[in-house]
Amino acid sequence: MIRLSGLEGVSIELMIKGKEMRKTRFKLTVAENEIAEKLIKCFIDGVVRGTHPSIAGWIDMEKVGGVAGCDFVETRGGKVRISLNSLLNLRNRVSGKVQFLIDVCSDISRAIEIEKCLRGIVERLRDSLELQGSIVALGWLRMFETSDFPVDPSRVIEANFNFSNWFINASGCSSMLSLEIARGWGSVNWDIVRHTSDKVRNSLPAIKQPDADILKNVKYVLDWEKVLEVLLDESSRVAVEALAFVWFVDYLCESNGLLYDESYAFIQSTSLDILHLYLGKEITEILKGIKELVEELYVISKRDDRVAVDWARIVRLPW
Description:
Strand content: 5-15%
Number of domains: 2
Order of helices and strands: EEHEEEHHHHHHHHHHHHHEE
Strand order of the largest sheet: 3-5-4
Radius of gyration: 26 Å
């Protein structure tokens, strides 16, 4: 039994079972703080360079020194790294600078969960036209909504729009434009996406139904019927699906609260690897297809010596 005397004569009695009680200091020493900082930086740097988090951060023990007795490390074959399982409890034991690094690691952990979600979805994509169509709809919706739809003002005036309201009107039509693309490749079912993972279950955007006249005028400005014909051509399929996938990834990152560049670096690298596996195409070939698609859209929008719609600022990658 241990008796702890408190203020005003109050005492607290603790019954300790077993023969020994391990003493754990709450705050790290200066030396331990430096070790934690070095190991966490090593982990983060490895992730940014493209090493998967599951194996990132290992360093020769002799380059660190003083790790004996540290309860926040793991060792293996003469190497040491930060124990990822210890980070949550470690945060309140370190300096503010190291706390920030731990926050970055926590963000990377969220990115790892997104990666798992993506791999699970891709396994289902090949066998589900509904899921394929739904991912196309979500991805293109995200791409359209984050664009400012840059167009020639004269084209907007031709459509009897007030130019100052163009962005609001065009953005409000994003859902319907995306659905038209998606339904050209498959059916759309938000629920089938929602139930693929907890990461998307409660965060899908609402489908907005714009005024019919506004939708008609937006389509006129964009030359939508000709654009849609290009997007639904078989030669555009890889580019359309690739753009949808990376923008769906961006949507997941935003809806799951990713904050730091290091997490986005990991997601960018791993999502391109997953995209390569899904489409069976090299990334250079996919990027070339996207570039050719944008060039074809520019041909549609060319008016004499000017371009009516700046498609490169609409149909683009998120990173």
